[in-house]
Amino acid sequence: MNEFSIMRGQQQIAQLSLMDYAAGMAYTVSEGTCTKTKLTGPFQPFCIPDSAPPAIPMYFGTGDNKINVMNYVLADPAGIITSLLVSDGCVPFSNTTINMAGASPYALSLGYNGTTIGIKDPSVFDVPAECKHDTDPVRVARGKMRATLLKNLMQPEPIKVDPVQQAPRKCCFPQKFQSPGGMIGLVETGGKTYFQSTNLNISYDATLQKQATVSQTSINESPPTIEIELKDYRDGVQYNVRNGKCFKNPLKSPMPNCIPDDATYEPMVMGSGATKLKGGVYTYTLHGIKVTDFVTDDCVLISQILNGNVGPTVEYWYTLGYSALTLGIKDEKVFDVPATCKNATEVENARLSVWQI
To answer: Do 341 and 311 belong to one domain?
Structure first.
């Protein structure tokens, strides 16, 4: 049984689905309306396929407040790519799926928050009251409550956030850190959708007011593009070196040191039992970009989900992972201005994105 809501643009879509393999039926409830379909196959245990490539060991968090995970990257011939992270005991940690098949490609990121082993109440598997003529008062009341919830989630006007969901405390990132992270997502431009994967090496220093990123990006199956990006917030300039050419642009925004005070907040526990990581989920909009930050209790980044635009014709949906994050900067030379940029001329609105070449 799954009960969830999905944000598509400005629209909130909420659904409940129940798959009863013993009865061979699937039930989907949306806006109080039930749809029934027949299941054609047997129940499939949720296991990593034996044919999966070797898992990549990773960790998130720092010091004593971190969790070890294994990353399984699964590719389907139909164009579905899944990055599944599991903690000790194969407990799901997160799941990012990119589907390039069909006419409507999509990116789906799941975080498994508050996972517990076992089922507390088997009635969650009861057929929803909306799907049968039910006279049981408890199930009927539950169905009405669910229908009201789904209706409220589907309303077009902005959803009011209860004050208790506001960030309970200031969350500021470590002053200095480095992370060999990664990013996958979709980019839509010119009516076409592209799959993008990027390996990142991020260096962040709030004291120097600088951030340097070395990345290797592949779009669909094209040869990778290597890029160096240096943001110097103190001097207000940004450098991007791509394919040996330097672009220089004024940098007018302040360095992001803390999550905005108006961000909404939800507590988070990832993993299960003795192997778990506590933190929070912050959601906000910054410079027109919709951001969801997953952080530890001490505000160390675990992952980010970003949705934004590059100019009027490009929209992106990215999921970033900050794995193997370490505090401090090993070598401050990573913040030196690239040699190819020494004589670069500053140009307003210079091409800063691989999508603007």
So the answer is: yes
Q: For residue 141, give the DSSP letter.
A: H
pLDDT at residue 111 tops 90: no
pLDDT of residue 154: 42
Q: Are residues 188 and 269 in the same domain?
A: yes
Is there a domain that residue 305 lies in? yes
In a domain, 99, yes or no: no
List residues bridging with 317 in a β-sheet. 186, 307
**Measured distance CA(329)–CA(174) in Å, rounded:** 11
The type of residue at 314 is V
Domain that holds residue 259: 176-356
In a domain, 307, yes or no: yes
184 & 146 share domain: no
* Burial class (CB within 10 angstroms; exposed 0-12, middle 13-18, buried 19+) of 128: buried
**How large is the greatest C-alpha to C-alpha distance in the chain, in angstroms?**
78
d(CA 250, CA 235): 9
- Res 305: pLDDT: 93
Percent of the chain past pLDDT 90, that is, above it, reads: 43
Task: Give the E-state strand segments of 124-209 in sequence order.
Answer: 176-179, 182-189, 192-205
pLDDT tens-place string over residues 233-261: 999 999 999 888 899 999 988 998 999 99
State residue 8's pLDDT score.
Answer: 55
Q: Is residue 49 included in any domain, yes or no? A: no
Structural domains in the chain (count): 2
Dihedral in degrees, nearest 10, Cα atoms 134, 138, 141, 142: -100
Computed over every residue of the chain, the mean pLDDT equals 83
Q: Looking at the structure, do residues 195 and 150 belong to the same domain, yes or no? A: no
Q: What's the CA gap between 349 and 326, in Å, rounded?
A: 33
CB 113 within 8 A of CB 13: no
